[in-house]
Amino acid sequence: MASTSTAKLSSAMEESPNWLEMPHELMANILQRLGTAEILNSAREVCTTWLGICKNPEMWKVIVMHKSFDDRDEDYDLERLTKQAVDLSCGELIDISIKGFGTDELLDYIVLRSCKLKRLSLESCFAMSESGVNHAVKRVPQLEELHISDIFINTECMEAIGRNCPQLKSFVVNSCNALAIVNNVPELRRLGLLETILNECPFLESPYIDMCNNLDLDGDLK
Q1: Is 111 domain-assigned?
Q2: Residue 201 lies in domain
Q3: DSSP calls for 78-91
């Protein structure tokens, strides 16, 4: 009886797929469905195959680091992990989204090592300042999308964005100073706030207007 059970177990093991033989491209696709922090903190430690995949710069062309404000984040140094992910990208990073944490020093670290960065999203990064953003945008003239939320942006910073990011096509910001950017980005296709610039952006396709309770859609805007 024992011999029969052993034979069945052996047969089942032989029929089970060997996950390590899965194409690395498919494995990478599966790993990328995890959060960046989860990949760095645990997934890449599972086996040497996964570790090798996680060392490929292609894995880090897009980085999403959002603080979830639950117990899980207590074990993560998100700023340190973000720097690790940027380093692993080896300059191939094109899209990064930071939410709920971060400093001017981290932002500077990112842009200094990301010569191909096309999209930057900063949300609820309360420790970042307008001077930090101002300094950072001067290093990413190739930027095409910039989304900023819950970071105060003054007119000087808006003008710096306009001067230094001429390829910007999507700009979303919760500030009333967006008019300062218009004269320098004629290719702009998406702008958050300020209907007063509509006539200044001939390529604009998607104005993003939110929480504008006093906006009169039957007046000049119409």
Answers
A1: yes
A2: 94-222
A3: HHHHHHHHHHHHTT
Residue 19 lies in a domain: no
**Minimal CA–CA distance to 107: which of 140, 76, 77?**
140
Which pTM value belongs to this model? 0.70
- Residue 154 domain-assigned (yes or no): yes
86 class by beta-carbon count within 10 Å (0-12 exposed, 13-18 middle, 19+ buried) = buried
Distance (Å, rounded) from C-alpha 15 to C-alpha 156?
65
Q: Which two tokens stand for residue 1?
A: 């009886």
CATH number for the domain harbouring residue 104: 3.80.10.10
d(CA 53, CA 101): 27
**Confidence class of residue 110 from pLDDT cuts 50, 70 and 90?**
very high
Asked if 128 and 105 touch (Cβ cutoff 8 Å), the reply is no
Domains contained in the chain, number: 1
Whether residue 8 is predicted with pLDDT greater than 60 in this model: the reply is no
